[in-house]
Amino acid sequence: MPPIHPDSLGGPSRVLRWMAGMGLMTVSYLRDRHLIVRSEEPGDDADLPATVPADLSDDRVQHQEHGRGPLFHRRFTVLVDGATTDATGLMTLVRGDLEKLLPKEVAAVTPHGDGTPPKPGDEFVVRMPGPWDGPVRVISSDDTHLRLTTLDGHLEAGQIEFRADDEAEGLRFTIETWARPASPMLDLLFTHLRVAKEMQLFMWVRACLAAAKLAGGRPHGHVYAHTRRVRASEGRERA
Question: Where is the DUF1990 domain (predicted)?
């Protein structure tokens, strides 16, 4: 899969897509917010992401230290009742086409997944309403997880991981992020005005609900969203 440059993905219809998608997101968020149990607390160096492998790091990678403001370590998780597949089966579907997780009014993935699990070094772009398109690179992938790093042009600087686990209580799906806003403007929108932060929360909560459906089951209770906020002065990626 060749590298993708984010500047090649625009078009005259993009503003209309932003406006329509953001309106639908707002309606859906107000409707579904009762499904979320959220918590937030201070973080520390233990919340920093692992180092991007040297052979997958170049000047297009937006490491967390390239961002602005605090680092947000966020975990979105759902336990699935009645799943008809295990962790490997669920992640086979997710890794083969990440778009299966994304709210239809929010995002598309370019290039579209063809069912083939991605490998380290592959790149794609999550296209969203607003100026939020997110180019990413795969840095780790196996039967039960997929980890990505952000690239130049992404609204965040850091990493994101999708994973599934077979636990005693059942199948659990998790989305975990380690990232800082990529610019001073995004720091304002994410950290202070909280608009981008709520958009992100809504998207990943909806992705967790979609994962439960993909697994053939239903959420056991709520989707849990936990955030640990690390001061901007804290350390760098962990070795």
Answer: 107-196
